[in-house]
């Protein structure tokens, strides 16, 4: 059974850097074609994809946020870390990590999400 | 940039069929998936690769994709199906793209 869980600060000040950790089980990020993605969802809005890392350390970023994002993995710890710099109140949202179906672009299991508020 | 458009809301009576559309340029040439999100919960994948159901998803959920429009069909809609539904596709430039969401109301 695949599970993912996000962790990180719930409150961040403007201009600060946000670091979120996704801890997962039920699969290995060293398995071919496996990927873990990060998404966010402001209240009342659609999910927005942020970044994804593949089993081979290939990394993809949202074009609109690429300059502010960094994604990495620790295969031994079963963790994926997302860093977002220069936060603004508009970055306030629920942040999710999700497992990507191998050889497909859909996300079949999502974490419970972690809510991040950007405020001074 | 590649965009997906969904109607903001769809209403259906219990037991009837609900159709939720998702439109985008030449969408039929891409794989589309659908997520269901109930209030306060994380999104759940209900259809992938246009018409495949993940394990545990009821057979009343089905999908199609042709031309510029993909459609999620819920047959025999139940009150438990009331939720927000999002379509998603992949584009080589924009990468993972989501539609704006459709609120399904079961009256």
Structure write-up:
- The complex is a heterodimer of chains A (120) and B (107).
- With 120 residues, chain A is mostly beta strands.
- In chain A, 0% of the residues lie in helices and 51% in strands.
- Chain A is built from no helices and 11 strands.
- Chain A has strands at residues 3-7, 11-12, 18-25, 35-41, 48-54, 59-61, 69-74, 79-84, 93-100, 107-110, 114-118.
- In chain A, the strands form 2 sheets. In chain A, strands 2, 4, 5, 6, 9, 10 and 11 form a 7-stranded mixed β-sheet that branches. A 4-stranded antiparallel β-sheet of chain A has the order 1-3-8-7, with no helix packed on it.
- The mean pLDDT of chain A is 96.
- In chain B, the strands form 2 sheets. In chain B, strands 1, 3, 4, 7, 8 and 9 form a 6-stranded mixed β-sheet that branches. In chain B, strands 2-6-5 form a 3-stranded antiparallel β-sheet, with no helix packed on it.
- With 107 residues, chain B is an all-beta fold.
- In chain B, a hairpin with a 2-residue loop joins strand 5 and strand 6 (69-74).
- The model of chain B has no long low-confidence stretch (mean pLDDT 96).
- At the A-B interface, strand 5 and strand 10 of A face strand 7 and strand 8 of B.
